[in-house]
Write a structure and sequence with these properties.
Elements (H helix, E strand, L loop, with lengths): L15 E3 L5 H9 L14 E4 L7 H11 L3 E5 L10 E4 L10 H20 L2 E7 L1 E3 L5 H12 L3 E3 L8 E3 H12 L8 E5 L7 H11 L6 E3 L1 H13 L8 H6 L4 E3 L15 H7 L8
Parallel strand pairs: 1-2, 2-3, 3-5, 4-11, 5-9, 6-8, 7-10
Helix pairs in contact: 1-5, 2-3, 6-9
Length: 284
């Protein structure tokens, strides 16, 4: 893949208000929808995208809907709202049981937006991406990238744990896919993953390549456990902790085929993109 992911020449699908358009996901979505840096949405828009809901309050989300009066609202949430730390092929029927403040906040935003859309007659679509890969990524992938970059990440021998991921480019494409045509808006809740089945080690390798082909070392599980225990005893002075070790050796995957029943959305492998995309100064 040799083209820039920052192509602002894409046709604009419709007037849209994108919250936090300069935020992590907002930038990708604005580019995908063909909204250049000089785009100014009208006061009333047919489409409102809540791109980084963790950065706004429930009241701000409701006010945005009331102010823009959209026919369609898309919320880019997260699979974190399920509150799961392990599991395989988890689909949208899983109960929402957020396990920390950040995911509880996302779940609350989802509910308030759904309630407001029902009251106003707007169609509501909630997208729940797995761990997102992209410039400025946070959470699991962001922490992994930081550890790879500073040399504190090490493979654990025998670790074949998988972790669902998706590139921010494909999250933005999913926003387009569910709102591309005014007469065929897609509503509902949809998980988003790259469906590659990549292991955590393969993700780390891809990030290492992207960061200048960083060299990664391997350690045995017993050594990793000893380092993690020592990290806990030193209150995080060391980069390994038992919580981090468990997260990086435990499978957590989600099913994202529901969206393809209604759209032509097909994601790319995020790890392959990291290893093969020819980056330019225009990329985000």
């Amino acid at each position: 893949m040799t083209t820039s992911n920052n192509d602002a020449s894409k046709p604009r699908i419709k007037d849209a208000h994108i919250s936090h358009r300069n935020g992590f996901m907002g930038r990708y979505i604005a580019r995908e929808l063909g909204h250049g840096d000089d785009y100014e949405p009208p006061a009333i828009c047919p489409l409102t995208v809540i791109s980084d809901p963790g950065e706004m309050t429930e009241e701000e989300a409701v006010k945005l809907i009331d102010d823009t009066k959209p026919k369609h609202v898309v919320v880019v949430s997260s699979t974190a709202v399920y509150g799961l730390s392990s599991g395989e092929n988890i689909d949208e029927t899983a109960p929402v049981r957020p396990a920390d403040n950040a995911s509880r906040h996302l779940a609350s935003i989802e509910e308030r937006v759904k309630e407001r859309c029902k009251a106003t007659g707007a169609i509501c679509t909630i997208l729940r991406p797995a761990d997102v890969v992209g410039t400025g990524m946070e959470g699991f992938t962001g922490k992994l990238a930081r550890d790879v970059n500073n040399g504190s990440y090490m493979h654990v021998e025998g670790n074949d744990a998988q972790r669902s991921i998706v590139h921010a480019i494909d999250v933005a494409k999913a926003v387009r896919a569910v709102s591309d045509k005014q007469d065929s808006i897609i509503e509902g809740i949809y998980n988003l993953t790259d469906r590659s089945g990549a292991t955590i080690e393969q993700l780390a390798d891809a990030i290492a390549y992207r960061l200048g082909n960083k060299r990664l070392f391997s350690i045995g599980l017993k050594t990793a456990k000893a380092l993690a225990l020592l990290g806990d005893l030193t209150f995080g002075a060391l980069p390994w902790t038992r919580k981090k070790l468990k997260a990086r050796t435990t499978t957590l995957t989600f099913n994202s085929f529901a969206i393809s029943k209604h759209t032509a959305w097909e994601p790319m492998s995020a790890t392959e993109y990291l290893k093969t995309h020819k980056y330019s100064e225009d990329d985000i």
